[in-house]
Amino acid sequence: MSTGDEAQRLAAEQRARVLIDQQLAQAGWVVQDRRELNLFAAQGVAVREVVMKPGHGRVDYLLYVDKAVVGVIEAKPQGTPLSGVEWQSAMYAEGLPAEIRLKALTTAGRLPFVFEASGSETHFTNGFDPEPRARVIFNFPQPETLARTIRAAQEDPEDPTWRGKVRSLPALDTSPLRPAQITAITGVERSLAEQRFDRSLVQMATGAGKTYTAVTQSYRLLKWGGFHRVLFLVDRNNLAEQTLAEFQNYRTPDDGRRFTELYNVAKLNRGGMPDSTKVAISTIQRVFKVLKNEVVPEDDDPGIDGFVPDEPVEVAYNPELPPEAFDLVIVDEAHRSIYGVWRRVLEYFDAHVVGLTATPGKQTFGFFRQNLVSEYTYPQSVADGVNVDFDIYRIKTAISEQGSMIEAGTIVPTVDRRTREERLEKLDEDLEYTDKQLDRAVTARSQIRLVLETFRDRLFSEIFPGRSTVPKTLIFAKDDAHAEEIVTTVREVFGKGNDFAAKITYNARDPKGQLQAFRTSPTLRIAVTVDMIATGTDVKPLECVFFMRDVRSAQYFEQMKGRGARTIDKATFQSVTPDAENKTRFVLVDAVGVTEHEYVEPPLNREKSISLKQLLDKAATLNLTESETATLASRLSALEAQLAPEERGELDRVAGQPLRQVVRSLVDAVDPDTQARHVEAGGDIQELLDRAIEPIAANPGLRTRIIELRRAHDRVIDEVSVDTLVDAYGVVDTDRAQAVVESWRAYLDEHRAEITAIQVIQESKERRIAFPDIQELADRIARPPYNWTPDLIWNAYVALGAKYRGSNATRTQHSLTDLVSLLRYTVGVDDELVPYADRVQEKYAAWLVQQSQHGVTFSDAERWWLDRMVAVIAASAGITADDLDEAPFTERGGIDGALRELGDSTGDLLEVLNRELPA
Question: Which end of the chain is more exposed for a tag (fewer CB within 10 A), N or C?
Fold first, then answer.
């Protein structure tokens, strides 16, 4: 090499060292020359140009932590392939001179922390890993990070880092997990142990319990895997609350405590997290703002969480949130752009990335280097009873298909997008618009009304035949203005008030409260949203997902579709939708053609015109087509969801295996990936279908019993025959009633120490039972083997001659709060059965009389508020100020309206009513 080339190389290396000095300083290291050595200057000291033992040259940087030598840095000019100089840094790590070795920390005869750096790229090899291997990192670790690793090595010399510990994790407790969750967790842990990739992708159908899986995984890695901290990325900030609740409710399998009793879980809103924070929850946008030292608001902000930059973002080092802040990053159905424009934020962290998604796209597969560790499709989740199948109902109108034209000279309303102020304008020229411009540039109110009127008119005849209550329906609008138009039209078309339909968007008032009301209120039937409920948010009673906007992304469509997929137990479902039996399906109502995109997978139930008996007959002759096989899987899955536990057990015995396994085999046989593998192995698809059908074809008894159970759970509606009365008298099954009452009393006696509602009744006659405690008791008794409801227990007491009274409405149909009345009667507090709502109304009437005697009267407007507060207490065993911002109070202004009508005494009235009225 010429002298000129050598000088140029040295100059380039010197420029690299200037950058490396800066990066070390940013990470908290003090950089010193050898002659100025001062190990007391800081916890971490990087010493330049140290001569090693003979034959080992001069190391560019020697690293000290807590006054002990722990590592080396080999500096090279920018652009140098760093993997090619690993031999050089390894030589330095093994070449300590005698005078330094006395104060050195080594493992296997060499310094543990080895770096190669060029100022634009840094490689790091951790000698404490079981098979040390260089990896790219964003910047040098902080001295305390290396000190923590050293302490871990002193505590556990065999497996000091998580890469070693994950190889010997304890056996997974599978009892609370579904098979797909077990497969996902073991797949991730296998990937972590193998360390062939620094990323793992889990494909799991929407509704299959991805978040619970991730919480279980996080606990195992924090408890036994040597992980220091986890970053949990969600799609929307409102989902951070839901995820936080999942962590708070998770009970650990080893000692039964809640996750948050052992580890601190917090939403990420700044850097400099305390060491006690073990799980940070955030969106990718908020992490980016934290890295830029910007203020991150606590509340939802669609301007932040919905922001997608036009170009890929770049990140800079932040000592308050260094790359080693997290060992694990879990991406739970985060924004579909996360692996594109936000990619640098993920790659900033020196962490293993686990992706959880229902529908990975090509970019997702690419980011995770094709490392798919488990796969669980939507049809498989239907077969397993995790989700329900769906049907598609298409509504087409001329304007939604072709657009329209408004002639010049027409006076039309125009709306300011920002202020929503409406004004009238005369068109100077013809206005022609396409279907693509509909509800963006132009709102055709006739089109919105016609679609919704069609939905109303066909709802109980074609979409949900035989039903009378509008199913819980979620409508997706194009933007907030479109949502406003839809919710107004829904109320008009159905002739209902504000409490029937609501807009739930980030711009709506109290969207979280409205969302909770949509989940639990029997009154709020239709919600209109844009993005807020599109991903991750659970509304289990939802039966209708209504698209009035198009969606171009397959991943986003699956997330939106998945809002209706959740299963729900019968008792909870009927408490919200009383005329429904079981949730066995949901319906996609498509008013824009979204289901006609190529990416939309058809439902399993593809052949609606063929009966279950015909399908079974064709199965017996091995004559089912692929579509008919899928349809049979859907029908059997729906039937299985309707069966009582004893019926399900009987069918499993007749089949010789769980019916769900039979259904799963049918689903696998029509899965394109399974078919492709079978064909590659030399088989044909018909052979695959026949093998799946065989358990049904070879078992006539099973086919017969399936039809019998189907008929037992079907209802034929006779609209032709005219009946005549023969006789009418009451027959009481006292034996069954006696058995129910005795079992109920025994249950209360056995569980009195663990159920709060029972304890409260027994400890104090005056103490109020909170609604969550009532819900807890209701959930417990609704499970097998009891399957009790308040109606069942109440009617059993009445059948045995218990003294009871109540209004006609409350004597025949009982709410959850009537469990309080049942408890009071059973333990002897009351000598007669009185519905909870009636007792509350009696106390309310007495309280009004008492107020009148003291000269206090209430106007009609004030009584409107008081009457509805009392109704809430009757249904929920109490009322809070937050309830005033939900239906029906929102139609008169919510809490602001209450303060306007009731004045400063609003809070006092709530306190008095809560004290005086609950039974």
Answer: N
Q: How far is CA 852 from CA 621, 756, 842, 858, 870, in A?
A: 80, 37, 16, 9, 18
Distance between CA 99 and CA 116 in Å, rounded? 24
Q: Are 89 and 74 a contacting pair, CB within 8 Å? A: yes
**Domain check: are 149 and 229 in the same one?**
no
Cα–Cα distance between 58 and 61 in angstroms, integer? 9
Contact between residue 359 and residue 553 where contact means Cβ atoms under 8 Å apart: no
Q: What three-state secondary structure class fits 385?
A: coil
What is the C-alpha to C-alpha distance for residues 254 and 63, in angstroms, rounded to an integer?
Answer: 41
733 part of a folded domain: no
Q: Are 64 and 95 found together in one domain?
A: yes
Per the domain annotation, does 790 fall within a domain? yes
Q: How many structural domains comprise the chain?
A: 6
pLDDT in tens, 300-310: 676 677 777 87
Same domain assignment for residues 808 and 847: no
Q: Is 493 helix (H, G, I), strand (E, B) or coil?
A: helix
Domain that holds residue 8: 3-158
CB hemisphere CA count around 381 (13 angstroms): 26
pLDDT digits (tens, 9 = 90+) for 595-648: 887 777 778 888 877 888 899 998 899 988 988 998 898 888 888 888 888 888
CA dihedral 569, 835, 873, 910 (to 10 degrees): -160
- Between 746 and 9, name the one with better pLDDT: 746
b/e 47-69 (16+ beta carbons within 10 angstroms → b): bbebebeeebeebbbbbbbbebb
What is the chain's Cα-based Rg? 33
Quick one: 110 and 196 in the same domain?
no
Identify residue 2 by its one-letter amino acid code: S
Q: Is 878 left (phi over 0), alpha (psi -120 to 50) or beta?
A: left
CA–CA distance, 802 with 173 (Å, rounded to integer)? 47
- Taking CA atoms, 478 is separated from 344, 400, 401, 438, 509, in Å, by 30, 13, 16, 10, 19
Length of the chain, in residues: 919
Per the DSSP assignment, residues forming a β-bridge with 502 are 527
Least confident stretch, 413-417, 659-663, 904-908: 413-417
Token readout for 485 is 């138009």
d(CA 874, CA 839): 8
Q: 349 near 231, Cβ under 8 Å? A: yes
On whether the CB atoms of residues 826 and 800 are closer than 8 A, the answer is: no
The alpha carbon of 365 is separated from its chain's Cα centroid by a whole number of angstroms, namely: 22
What torsion do the CA atoms of 189, 195, 197, 200 make, to the nearest 10 degrees? 10
How far is Cα 444 from Cα 234, in angstroms, rounded to an integer?
A: 35
Question: Is it true that the peptide bond before 112 is cis, omega within 30 degrees of 0?
Answer: no
> How far are the Cα atoms of 9, 327, 540, 836 from residue 824, in angstroms, in the given order?
89, 53, 32, 10
The answer as to whether 404 is a domain residue is: no
| Strands 122-126 vs 135-137: parallel, antiparallel or unpaired | antiparallel
